[in-house]
Each structure stands twice: as C-alpha cells, then as structure tokens.
C-alpha cells in the first residue's frame, strides 16, 4: 500500500489550482462553457461545503459533443490509426494516469469523500490496470472464420466493428474508475465517447479529460459533458446519433434508459444496483469471514454496488460474527477522505444520508434490532455510523432495497444442509449482482454458487481480475463490463459471406 500521508502537502496546491478554476465542458478537444452559461456547485461531502463549480451542460451541449464524437469516428485521424497506434494512445493514457495518480486520488477523495487509501490504492490503481488491460484488446479484437459446409460453396467470416458513438453515464460512488472502465474498452474497440459524470462527483472525469488532451487523442474522440442526469444524461439517452449507452447507477434510472434507448434501438450495457448476500457456514474461517464482511461495509461507506449487505450466518457462528463486526465498527476511523488515517468517509450528500438514516429508522419500526451504529456521526459533513441490524426479515425494505450506506442486515440460519432453502433466501430480492460464500466444504460452496442467481460469486474471498466480466442477473443490469465480454460489448458483429 502506498503511503498516503505524503499526499497531504499537495492539497493546498490542488485547492488553489485545479479546484479553483472555472471548470468547463470538454467538447471536440476544446474547453467550452455550457451554452446556457450555467454552472453548479460541487460540495465536499466531508464538510458539506463548497469544493468547486462545474459547467451545467444541457441537451444543446450534448448535441455538440455527439456531433464531435460522430465526426471523430468517421473522419479525421481516429479511424485512420492502426490498431497498434490506438493501443499505444490508451497505454499512454494509463501511463499519464499512473504519473498523476496521487493528484487524481486526492481529487477523488475530496469529491466523493472516500479515504485516500482506497482512492489511491484501489480506484486509481485499478483504473491504470483497466486502461492497460483494455489497451491490449485494441490489437486483439478479431472476428472468426465461420464454418461453411462444402455444399454452400461459400467462404464466411465475421468482423468486429466499433459500435459507434458511446454515451457513458457514470455514478458518484467510484467516478474515476467507472469512467475509465467505460472509456478504455470503448476506445480499444475503435468507438468514440461522450461521458456524462455524476453531478455529485464530476471532478476526476475533468482531470482525466485534461490528460486525454495532453496525450494528443484526436479531437472529439473523448468528450466530457458535466451536468444533471435529467437534462444532460437524458439528452444522451434520447440522442438519435448515439449508438450505445453504457450506464452505471441505480436500477430506477437503468429502467428509464431501457425505455429511452428503445426509440433508436440503442445498444445498452447497464451495471445497476445490488443487495448481495454473504452466506457463512459453521465450518468457515470465521475470522476471515468477519473481516471481509466488515470491510465490504466500511469500503466506500457501503456505497458500493457489490457490497455484501445481507449476512446469512449459521446460528452456531452468528453471534461471533456479529460481535466481531461490532468490535471492528467501533474501531474504524471515520473522517474526511483526505485525512491519512481515515478508513471510512462520509456519505456523498445530505439527501443520501437522510435516505440511509430513513432506512435504519424504518427497519427499527418494523422490528429489526439495531445491534450497533444507526446514528449520524456528530460532526460536520454527511457521516453515519457503521450499522448492524439483526432480526431482519425478507419483507423489510432494508432487506430488499439497495441502501447505499454502511448498513449490514443480519439473519441466522439453522440447517447448513438445506442448500435450496439457503439459496431461496439469498435470491429473495430483485437484485442479482454478487454473492459471497464462506465454507471449507467444497460441495456446499459450489452447490450454493450454482443455485444463487448473481453475476459475481466469490467463495472464501476469491479475488477479481481485470479479465473477469462484471455484471448482474435480474434487475442488477444488462450485459457485462470487463474482460473480453466487456470490450466486445463495444463492437457490432458482422458476417461476410463470399460465394465461391
Ligand atoms: P442515479 O442512477 O440517479 O445516477 C447515476 C448516473 O445517472 C448519474 O450520472 C446521474 O446524473 C445519471 N442520471 C440520472 N437520471 C438520469 C436520466 N434520466 N437519464 C440519464 N442519466 C441519468 O443514482 P443516484 O445518484 O440517484 O443514487 C441513487 C441510488 O442509486 C443509490 O442510493 C444507489 O442505491 C444507487 N446507485 C447505484 C450505483 C451502482 O454502482 N450500482 C451507483 C450510484 C447509485 P446526476 O447524478 O447528475 O443526476
């Protein structure tokens, strides 16, 4: 882990420089104000106070960005680059991100509130890895020779062509990583991009755009339009000349994107919410399981789509895990993202904080027990205590809804041999993004993994790699990001059949 203490002296320079500047839209390789002249305030969630102002792009700005992306896709330098030249540009972007990793992490921590140790060592680090992984695909995306029977007297092959202009819409919980996870594969596939970052945390996308400019990507290949979801985001979804929307965010907005995309039959990739189960069998490494269960709740203050927020632990180990969580929750260092010892930052906004506290209050009314936490932390900013709720039943909203806060809902189970019943419990929400299983019994582990309807299952804390596609079953999304599937999702498959 990089020492994050050494980053603190850079804060003043950042505040006086990048943060203080007038942030504009990045369209066609130029920095332009929103055509309405409007801007919006970006708050620091650890104080609730002013951090920066960003341009409020609207439909007209999105239209200019889409036109630039279309022109870049079809004319100009971008389509004339060889695959290797395109790869080299993406590798250069990865290098530039790596060189500026400290600054990007600081921006991300100030804007989103997440601890430097995670923005520096997880978000930005994974962003570099993601860009390099996807850069490699630029020279490896190929079609296939299709099987043609001799009687057909044909030779048939497939081509993978860029899907076109991509509208990338990203959330506030991991804005930098989500942006590069979309831009990297889109560029590797030869597409051009209009990125609309979340209004609550748009700053790292703007710094990324500066790096894209410095490296010398042809104008219009990547455009960044900051603004609101219902104006700029919706305009991207509605735009007739956008070929694909790649979205990460709430299931509610995901559904509106499904509807909105239908008008022009846009391709869509949706990475939506989750309410992931963690099933702990009595034979598991309870120490490791407790650590992992707690970490996933503290990580990004629970504002993380894959967070394991529903704990099902066998009754023999339930109390041990609950008291282990309580102990760790009591020790976790809560504070501003940029304080070097912070382990858990604030919630992104007052609205989200109220939402989290509202869920906790509703669960208590419905009969859940607040074992630990449950309250706002008494300091400026949008802080809430890590919270453990017991006696949670499937009909409660805290069991069903994605809370997006540091709230663990816990329920014990009796019979470890009833995999069908356990799976039924684990599957009993509209989501299906991830699941975590802890047991030393391989039959139980695989048996349950096969029964759970989720896109990403870990057993005993298995790790993720860039090569693994990420996405959800049910209402957790459509399609996959990451891996070969992720980059192929930015291509159209064409069959060419030659009569012989
Ligand atoms: P949203 O889904 O509203 O935001 C995600 C992105 O979509 C943002 O860039 C947002 O813009 C944009 N957007 C909003 N409305 C539209 C629209 N009509 N058309 C196109 N784009 C739009 O998430 P919220 O910020 O409202 O968070 C609410 C809940 O969503 C959270 O509590 C959590 O449960 C879930 N969520 C899940 C995420 C995940 O990773 N799975 C990430 C973020 C949220 P803007 O922010 O500018 O309005």
Which terms would index this structure?
39% helix, 16 helices, single chain, 500 residues, binds NADPH dihydro-nicotinamide-adenine-dinucleotide phosphate, seven-stranded mixed sheet, globular, alpha/beta, six-stranded mixed sheet
Write a brief structural summary.
The protein is of the alpha/beta class and 500 residues long. It has 16 helices and 21 strands.
Verbal overview:
This protein is α/β, with parallel strands linked by helices and 500 residues long. It is 39% helix and 20% strand. It has a seven-stranded mixed β-sheet, sandwiched between helices. Strands 8-7-6-9-10-20 form a six-stranded mixed β-sheet, with helices on both faces. Helix 14 (419-426) crosses helix 15. It is globular and about 65 Å long. Residues 169-173, 196, 198-200, 228-230, 233-234, 237, 248-250, 253, 256, 272-273, 305, 352, 402, 404 line the site of NADPH dihydro-nicotinamide-adenine-dinucleotide phosphate.
List the helices and strands and how they pair.
Layout: H1 10-16, E1 25-27, E2 30-32, E3 39-44, E4 49-55, H2 59-74, H3 83-99, H4 101-112, H5 116-137, E5 154-162, E6 165-169, H6 175-188, E7 192-196, H7 203-215, E8 222-224, H8 229-238, E9 244-248, H9 251-262, E10 267-271, E11 276-280, H10 286-298, E12 308-314, H11 315-331, H12 350-365, E13 369-372, E14 387-390, H13 397-400, E15 407-413, H14 419-426, E16 431-432, E17 434-438, H15 442-451, E18 456-459, E19 473-474, E20 477-478, H16 483-488, E21 491-499
Parallel strand pairs: 6-7, 6-9, 7-8, 9-10, 11-12, 11-17, 12-15, 14-15, 17-18
Antiparallel strand pairs: 1-2, 3-4, 5-21, 10-20, 13-14, 16-19
Helix pairs in contact: 2-8, 3-5, 3-7, 4-5, 4-7, 5-6, 10-11, 14-15
The chain binds NADPH dihydro-nicotinamide-adenine-dinucleotide phosphate (NDP).
């Amino acid at each position: 882990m990089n020492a994050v203490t050494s980053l603190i002296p850079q804060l003043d320079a950042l505040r006086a420089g990048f943060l203080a500047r007038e942030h504009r839209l990045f369209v066609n390789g130029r920095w332009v104000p929103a055509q309405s002249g409007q801007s919006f305030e970006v708050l620091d969630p650890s104080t609730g106070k002013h951090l920066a102002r960003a341009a409020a792009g609207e439909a007209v700005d999105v239209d200019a960005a889409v036109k630039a992306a279309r022109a870049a896709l079809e004319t100009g330098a971008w389509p004339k680059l060889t695959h290797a030249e395109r790869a080299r540009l993406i590798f250069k972007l990865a290098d530039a991100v790596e060189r500026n990793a400290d600054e990007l992490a600081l921006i991300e921590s100030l804007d989103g509130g997440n601890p430097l140790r995670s923005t520096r060592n997880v978000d930005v680090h994974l962003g570099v890895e993601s860009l390099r992984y996807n850069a490699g695909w630029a020279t490896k995306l190929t079609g296939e020779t299709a099987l043609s029977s001799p009687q057909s007297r044909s030779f048939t092959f497939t081509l993978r062509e860029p899907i076109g202009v991509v509208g990338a819409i990203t959330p506030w919980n991991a804005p930098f990583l989500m942006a590069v996870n979309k831009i990297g594969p889109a560029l590797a596939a030869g597409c051009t991009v209009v990125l609309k970052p979340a209004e609550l945390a748009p700053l790292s996308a703007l710094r990324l755009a500066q790096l894209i400019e410095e490296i010398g990507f042809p104008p219009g290949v990547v455009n960044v339009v900051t603004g609101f979801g219902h104006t700029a985001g919706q305009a991207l979804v509605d735009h007739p000349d956008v070929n694909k929307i790649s979205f990460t965010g709430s299931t509610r907005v995901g559904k509106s994107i499904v509807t909105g995309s239908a008008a022009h039959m846009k391709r869509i990739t949706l990475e939506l919410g989750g309410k992931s189960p963690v099933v702990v069998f009595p034979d598991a490494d309870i120490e490791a399981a407790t650590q992992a269960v707690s970490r996933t709740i503290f990580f990004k203050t629970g504002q993380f789509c894959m967070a394991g927020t529903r704990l099902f632990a066998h009754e023999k180990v339930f109390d041990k895990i609950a008291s282990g969580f309580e102990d760790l929750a009591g020790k976790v260092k809560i504070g501003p993202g940029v304080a070097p010892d912070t382990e858990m930052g604030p919630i992104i906004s007052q609205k989200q904080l109220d939402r989290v506290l509202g869920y906790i209050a509703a669960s208590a009314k419905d009969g859940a027990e607040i074992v630990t936490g449950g309250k706002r932390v008494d300091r400026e900013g949008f802080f809430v205590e890590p919270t453990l709720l017991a006696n949670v039943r499937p009909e409660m909203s805290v069991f069903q809804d994605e809370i997006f806060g540091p709230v663990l809902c816990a329920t014990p189970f009796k019979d470890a041999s009833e995999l069908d019943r356990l799976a039924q419990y684990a599957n009993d929400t509209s989501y299906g993004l991830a699941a975590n299983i802890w047991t030393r019994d391989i039959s139980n582990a695989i048996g349950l993994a096969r029964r759970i309807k989720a896109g990403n299952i870990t057993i005993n804390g298995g790790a993720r790699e860039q090569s693994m596609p990420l996405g959800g079953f049910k209402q957790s999304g459509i399609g996959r990001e990451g891996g070969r599937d992720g980059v192929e999702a930015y291509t159209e498959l064409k069959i060419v059949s030659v009569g012989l």
